[in-house]
Amino acid sequence: MKNRIITILALIFSIFIANAQNTPKVPMVKLNNGMEMPQLGVGTFLVKEDAVQRVSYAIKVGFRLIDVAQGYGNEKEVGEGIRQSGIDRSELFVTTKINTTEMRNGTVRESLDKSLADLATGYIDLVLIHWPVEGKIKETWQILEEYIDKGLIRCIGVSNFNPHHLDDLLEYARIQPVVNQIEVEPYLTQQKVVGYTFQKGIQVQAWGPLGQGITGVLEDPVIGEIATRHGKSIAQVILRWHMQRGLVTIPRCDNDAHTEENIRIFDFELSPAEMEIISGLNRDQRSNSKNDPDNFPW
Ligand code: NAD
Q1: What is the pLDDT of residue 178?
Q2: What pLDDT, on the 0 to 100 scale, is given for residue 23?
Q3: How far apart are CA 235 and CA 248, in angstroms?
Q4: pLDDT at position 132
Q5: Where is 19: in which H helix or E strand?
Q6: Is 187 exposed, middle or buried (0-12, 13-18, 19+ CB in 10 A)?
């Protein structure tokens, strides 16, 4: 009987060790306020009905950074997915974004209270201004600073900000933005905005890292060749390119097989020449021409 118990315990222990070794470790990046965030996470744009399962699965395979937005209409489901994963809240980094409508309507406080209630994660790690709504950035920023003071959110940042938007904000910001989340992929390298953002001590985060699945970058033959050489998929090579550029990124988690594939990018490295070839594919091509920070219709 005693031997059987020992054998069973040894088996459980070996499964635990095997799992621990199998879970890829995502590097952390240090933000300008001293806090850290995982360099790779998952996005939840257009993940709605099955968001609970998809988010919970992503956390189970090792993702700890979850990106959501008021505009995606799924904060409740994402919050539930976080709880169902069984991973301790303190290990996770949750981002949401203030919708343009709330900025225009003067309902930013109400929207933040709703995000806090819907996510029900106690606090939110990072809140971003989703788009630079002209004439509304300063008052929104001051409300975000107020919520930091109250301890309800931990970091604040921006999204879709061009250098001139950053310059304006930095003139009056009492609390510095930690992140600028912008559209970046091999067909849209955003060299200038990336460089300027880093120069200001702000972490660049790439949205649409795989071209939103619509720009054709996932079928690019040049990246395909590099992928074959490394025994990886095109998506994995693109995500690895983002990592080696020093960007944080958040590929969408709408498919568990993809989610599992997307975290397995820490066991190979692109050479400087391969990095250059991928960056050289730039066409300044947005996934949608409406995604222009200086002229967007929402
Ligand atoms: P994405 O570049 O992550 O591409 C999503 C598409 O790629 C989906 O169709 C998905 O099924 C597919 N995909 C994912 N992994 C794959 C793999 N391994 N192989 C093949 N296909 C794969 O596009 P996205 O979702 O728009 O961007 C990522 C996240 O960025 C969003 O989910 C959202 O959280 C955020 N985002 C932010 C903004 C903003 O304005 N700040 C705008 C859009 C998206």
Answers
A1: 99
A2: 78
A3: 15
A4: 98
A5: helix 2-22
A6: middle
Which atom of ligand 1 lies at the shortest distance from residue 181's CA?
Answer: 41
Q: Ligand 1: distance of its center to the CA of 111 in Å?
A: 24
Count how many residues are written for the chain.
298
Distance from Cα 210 to the centre of ligand 1, integer Å? 6
Output the average pLDDT for the chain.
Answer: 95
Amino acid at 172: Y
Look at ligand 1, atom 8, and give the residue with the nearest C-alpha: 213
What are 90-93's contacts with CB under 8 Å, separation 24+? Answer: 91/64, 92/59, 92/64, 92/65, 92/66, 92/121, 92/125, 93/37, 93/38, 93/41, 93/64, 93/65, 93/66, 93/125, 93/126
Closest ligand 1 atom to Cα of 185 = 2
Distance CA 97, CA 99 (A): 6
pLDDT at 5: 62
Cα of 13 vs centre of ligand 1, distance in Å, is 36
**pLDDT (0 to 100) of residue 24:** 85
Q: What pLDDT is recorded for position 7? A: 55
Query: Which residue has its alpha carbon closest to ligand 1 atom 16?
Result: 258
Count of Cβ atoms closer than 10 Å to residue 272 Cβ: 8
- List the beta bridge partners of residue 98: 129
Which residues partner with 42 through β-bridges? 66
Instruction: Give residue 44 CA to ligand 1 midpoint distance, Å.
Output: 8
DSSP state of 49: T
**Residue with CA nearest ligand 1 atom 29:** 43
The pTM is what?
0.94
Ligand 1: atom nearest CA of 47 is 32
**164 alpha carbon, distance to own chain's centre:** 23
Q: Is 145 in the pocket of ligand 1 (CB under 6 A)?
A: no
Q: Which residues are catalytic?
A: 72
